[in-house]
C-alpha cells in the first residue's frame, strides 16, 4: 500500500479494531465458564456458539463500515473484496475456552491484498483484559508501546509452542531438537504466547498447522514490537503460507533457530 493510502485508512483503524475486540469480548465473556456445548468440525477441532456469534458480529460491523472489503473467517468462510481482506479468528484457543482456561483470544487482521502486506493486527485476550495491537509503526499493549526482548542466543532463549499434538512426527522431532537447545521450553497459550513475545517475556514461538486466520494478525504485532516472524524456510508469511510459523525476538535468534530446524 502506498504511504498516503496507509495514512487514509490507518487513522480509522485503532478505534475500529478496539470496537471489534470490545464486541467480541462481550460475547466471549458471556459464554465463558458456562459449561457451553460444542461441536466438532470436520478437522475435529471444536466450535461453539460463542465462536459463531463473535464472527457473525464482527462481520456485521465490518460490512457496515467497509462494505467493499473482503472477509475471511474461521467459521464462515470467505467473502471477496476489492482490495482489502479482514482475517478473523473469533476464538483462538477454543479448547482452552471450553475447558475454562482464560488463555483464549480473538485475532483480527486487515490485509492489503494489492500491496501484499498486513496493515494492522490485534491479539485480544477478553478473559484477561489484555490487548496487543500492531502496525508497521509499532506495537502496543493496552495502549502502551511494547518491544521484544534483547535475547540473541538460542541457549539463553525461552521458547514456546501450543501443543505437541499439532505437529507431525517429523516436525515434532525438529521442534524437540530445537527446543532442547533453548534455556527452557513451555507449552500452551495459543495466540497469547505471541503477545508475550511482543512484550519481551519470551523469545521464540514455533508452531505448525496454523491457518491464515491464525497467523495474519500476529505479523504486525510481532514486527511492530521489533521482532520477526517467518515460516520454517525463513520466508515472510502470507495467506498462502503452509502453517509452519516461527516468531523470534530478532533476526540473529531466528537464524540460529532456523539452522537447527533445517538440520534436525
UniProtKB/TrEMBL annotation:
Matching PROSITE patterns: IMP_1
Regions crossing the membrane: none
Entry-linked InterPro entries: Inositol_monoP_metal-BS (IPR020583), Inositol_monoP_superfamily (IPR051090), Inositol_monophosphatase-like (IPR000760)
Family listed: Belongs to the inositol monophosphatase superfamily.
Gene3D superfamilies the UniProt entry points to: 3.40.190.80, Fructose-1,6-Bisphosphatase, subunit A, domain 1 (3.30.540.10)
Cofactor needs: Mg(2+)
Classification via SUPFAM superfamilies: Carbohydrate phosphatase
Pfam families with a match to the protein in the record: Inositol_P (PF00459)
Protein name: Inositol monophosphatase family protein
Residues annotated as signal peptide: none
Keywords assigned: Hydrolase, Magnesium, Metal-binding
Recorded superkingdom: Bacteria
Amino acid at each position: 500500500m502506498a504511504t498516503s493510502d496507509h495514512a487514509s485508512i490507518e487513522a480509522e483503524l485503532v478505534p475500529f479494531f478496539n470496537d471489534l475486540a470490545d464486541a467480541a469480548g462481550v460475547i466471549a465473556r458471556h459464554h465463558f465458564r458456562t459449561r457451553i456445548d460444542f461441536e466438532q468440525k470436520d478437522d475435529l477441532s471444536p466450535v461453539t456458539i460463542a465462536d459463531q456469534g463473535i464472527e457473525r458480529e464482527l462481520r456485521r460491523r465490518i460490512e457496515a463500515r467497509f462494505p467493499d472489503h473482503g472477509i475471511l473467517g474461521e467459521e464462515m468462510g470467505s467473502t471477496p473484496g476489492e482490495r482489502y481482506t479482514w482475517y478473523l479468528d473469533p476464538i483462538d484457543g477454543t479448547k482452552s475456552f471450553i475447558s475454562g482456561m482464560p488463555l483464549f483470544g480473538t485475532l483480527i487482521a486487515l490485509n492489503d491484498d494489492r500491496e501484499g502486506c498486513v496493515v494492522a493486527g490485534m491479539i485480544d485476550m477478553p478473559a484477561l483484559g489484555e490487548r496487543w495491537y500492531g502496525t508497521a509503526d509499532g506495537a502496543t499493549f493496552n495502549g502502551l508501546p511494547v518491544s521484544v526482548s534483547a535475547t540473541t542466543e538460542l541457549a539463553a532463549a525461552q521458547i514456546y509452542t501450543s501443543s505437541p499434538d499439532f505437529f507431525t512426527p517429523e516436525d515434532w522431532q525438529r521442534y524437540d531438537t530445537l527446543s532442547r537447545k533453548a534455556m527452557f521450553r513451555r507449552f500452551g497459550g495459543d495466540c497469547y504466547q505471541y503477545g508475550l513475545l511482543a512484550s519481551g517475556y519470551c523469545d521464540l514461538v514455533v508452531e505448525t498447522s496454523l491457518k491464515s486466520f491464525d497467523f495474519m494478525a500476529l505479523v504486525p504485532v510481532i514486527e511492530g514490537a521489533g521482532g520477526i516472524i517467518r515460516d520454517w524456510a525463513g520466508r515472510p508469511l502470507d495467506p498462502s503460507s503452509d502453517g509452519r510459523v516461527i516468531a523470534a525476538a530478532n533476526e540473529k535468534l531466528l537464524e540460529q533457530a532456523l539452522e537447527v530446524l533445517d538440520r534436525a
